[in-house]
Each structure stands twice: as structure tokens, then as C-alpha cells.
Design a protein that fits this description.
With 300 residues, the protein is α+β, with helices and mostly antiparallel strands. Helix content is 40%, strand content 12%. The chain has ten helices and seven strands. It has helices at 52-55, 105-114, 140-147, 153-185, 189-201, 217-232, 236-248, 254-259, 272-279, 286-295; strands at residues 32-36, 45-50, 59-62, 68-72, 87-92, 99-101, 119-124. The strands form two sheets. Strands 1-2-7-5-6 form a five-stranded antiparallel beta sheet. Strands 3-4 form a two-stranded antiparallel sheet. α2 packs across α5, α4 (153-185) runs antiparallel to α5 and α4 (153-185) runs parallel beside α6. The radius of gyration is 23 Å and the shape is globular. It starts with 31 loop residues before the first strand and ends in a 5-residue tail after the last helix. Residues 7-42 have low confidence and may be disordered.
């Protein structure tokens, strides 16, 4: 199955993000925390409003249920309400005063990245439970065999189950990729972004290919297409960040980045050249050319 950036592939309908009731604008750009309930169970819910620059310091990952879970919390007072493992239930819409139910990880990341104002998050307190972020559970038979240093039916069965789940996930991921490409080609960049973010989040942990690549081709092409979407939407900083992740993961087609019409907008960014030159250093140093021209009176 061949992956390509910005090509026409099969598609299926995509539902628009489900929205919750609208809320009033944030009263200020300061942190606002509101707790619901007083029990210490995993059903505790709290609400936080953060400036976007602060909210972006939090890191989220896709859980086994497709939701967005907190995986990194800075050690600063603005984040006292958060714990690793907490789940996002609702998030500010990408613009305006609406709130979107956090139906999927991709939708949440899209909303946070595209919003210009403060970020509202409705969170479920999980009290340190990170089971939703674990890829698979070992059966009791497998645990017993491993503890005894043995390899038996329990271990073999679990390995077969994990292999089957892995293959199913790979097929699901490629279907989602095709869906996002189709939306991109229809110029529905917003919904394409939501699904591309989902595809990127499904990158296998600790991946290592036969030639020692640490990222899958799906991830690299997906990050490239995320950069294209943001460029088309005029979100140049987000596009640059996606390109940086794309090249950091091993993308080496620098000529395409420098010439692709889909990235025309981001190439106008004053930060584009410095960023790509870190990965693709020009064959002839421009400073050296200017120096030689200066010696021989070549002007600028």
C-alpha cells in the first residue's frame, strides 16, 4: 500500500465535531478552576481555563478508547489541578465561545492548536490511573509463566492476540489516512487535520524498522500532510512545527518541502529558511557567497 502526500484516494463521510452547549467568554486570561463533586473517585470532574501559551505546555496522548489523556504536566502552580492520566471531556471550539465534546484525540488537538484565545478544558480526574494509555495487558497465565522463567501456552496466546490487534490497528490507521487524504483533496483542511492528528497519535511506541528507522512511513507522511493543512489554513507556526517533526522523524525529501505548492504559505514565514536549513544545509554556504561577492565588488 503506497502512501503519498496530497493524492486522491478513497474516502468515506466524516461527521462534524459534536458540540456541547455554548458557554460564556472567559472572564480573564488567568487560570480558572472549578471542581464538580467532592468524592475521591475517578469520576471527579474539574474545569480549567488557561491562556493558549500556557495550555500548550501540557502534553496529551491518544488513549485506547480514542480519547485525549494528559501525559505530561509541568511542575508549576498553573497546572496544580492536572495529573498524568486525566482525560479531556470537553474543549474550547477552535473559535468563538462554543465548547466541543472531546469525542476524539484528533478533534481535541485540532481545537487547541487552532484556537487564538484562552483554552477551556473540562477534565475527568483519573487519580493516577493510566491504564487507558497502556497498549496491552498481560494475561494472568503469561504473568505466571514470565515470573517462573517459562514460555508456555499463556505466553503464546497473548503474543498471538497482541499480533492480531497490532495488524487490525495498522489497517484501521491506513483507512483513516486514506480518509484524511480524501478530505484534503476536497479542500476540507479542518476535518482532514482532525483525522491526520489521530493517525499520527497511533504511531507505535518504541518503533524500530529493519533499517533502524524510529518512525513509520505513515507517521512521516502524516506529519507532512499536517504541515500542508496548516499552511493552507494560514497557521504558519503550526505548519513549521509539523514540518520540524516530519523531518526529525526522518523525512528527507527536502526538495518537495521547498517546492510543494501546498506549502507555499509556510515558505513565506521568516522562520522557514532557518528551520529547514538545520536539516538540509545548502551545498554552498550563502555567507561565503556574499563574502566572495563583497571582495570582487559583486554587490549584495
Amino acid at each position: 500500500r503506497t502512501l503519498a502526500a496530497s493524492v486522491s484516494l478513497a474516502a468515506r463521510p466524516v461527521a462534524a465535531p459534536r458540540r456541547a452547549a455554548a458557554r460564556a467568554p472567559a472572564r480573564s486570561s488567568s487560570v480558572v478552576v472549578k471542581a464538580e463533586g467532592a468524592t475521591a473517585e475517578a469520576t471527579d470532574v474539574y474545569e480549567v481555563t488557561l491562556p493558549k501559551s500556557v495550555a500548550l505546555q501540557l502534553k496529551f496522548a491518544r488513549g485506547n478508547d480514542g480519547g485525549a489523556y494528559c501525559v505530561f504536566v509541568p511542575d508549576e502552580t498553573e497546572f496544580d489541578a492536572f495529573e498524568i492520566g486525566d482525560k479531556i471531556l470537553a474543549v474550547s471550539a477552535s473559535f468563538g465561545n462554543e465548547v466541543w465534546d472531546a469525542d476524539s484525540y484528533g478533534q481535541v488537538i485540532y481545537a487547541i492548536k487552532n484556537r487564538n484565545g484562552d483554552i477551556y478544558l473540562k477534565m475527568m480526574k483519573m487519580n493516577g490511573d493510566i491504564s487507558a494509555l497502556e497498549q496491552s495487558e498481560k494475561s494472568s497465565a503469561m504473568k505466571a509463566e514470565r515470573a517462573g522463567g517459562n514460555y508456555g501456552a499463556g505466553t503464546k496466546e497473548m503474543q498471538m492476540q497482541n499480533y492480531s490487534k497490532k495488524k487490525e490497528l495498522e489497517v484501521q490507521r491506513l483507512d483513516m489516512f486514506d480518509e484524511a487524504i480524501a478530505l484534503y483533496n476536497k479542500k476540507d483542511f479542518d476535518n482532514a487535520l482532525i483525522i491526520f492528528e489521530e493517525v499520527a497519535a497511533l504511531e507505535p511506541k518504541n518503533f524500530m524498522s529493519d533499517n533502524f528507522q524510529t518512525a513509520t512511513e505513515v507517521y512521516k507522511v502524516t506529519m507532512y500532510n499536517i504541515a500542508c493543512c496548516f499552511s493552507k489554513l494560514g497557521q504558519l507556526d503550526n505548519s513549521l512545527q509539523a514540518l520540524k517533526k516530519c523531518m526529525g522523524a526522518g523525512w528527507t525529501d527536502y526538495k518537495k518541502i521547498r517546492t510543494d505548492p501546498s506549502l507555499a504559505e509556510v515558505r513565506t514565514s521568516p522562520n522557514f529558511k532557518a528551520m529547514i536549513d538545520k536539516f538540509d544545509e545548502p551545498l554552498i554556504n550563502e555567507n561565503a557567497i556574499k563574502f566572495v561577492k563583497g571582495i570582487f565588488g559583486g554587490g549584495k
